[in-house]
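Review this fold:
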Amino acid sequence: MIGKIIRIMRGENHLTQEELSKITFIGRSTLSDYEREKTDISFEDIEKIADACNYKVIFLNKEDNSKILSSENIERKEI
C-alpha cells in the first residue's frame, strides 16, 4: 500500500522518480523499490517524501491497528 501512496503523491506533484530523488536525497532506484514495495521504507524516508510532496504525515501506534501513514490528502479511491 505504501508504494501506491508514494506513486500518487509523486504523480500529483508532477515529479519523476529522478526529480523526487534529487529533492529528498533518496536514490532513484531506492524510490523505485519503495514504489514497487520491494524494499521496506523507513519512517525518515516517508517523512522526506511526504514533505517534498507537501503532505502531512502522522505516525500512529500499530498496537491500535492504526495506519502507519496518514495524511489529510490520502483519502482517495485509487488506494
Notes: The chain has a mean pLDDT of 82.
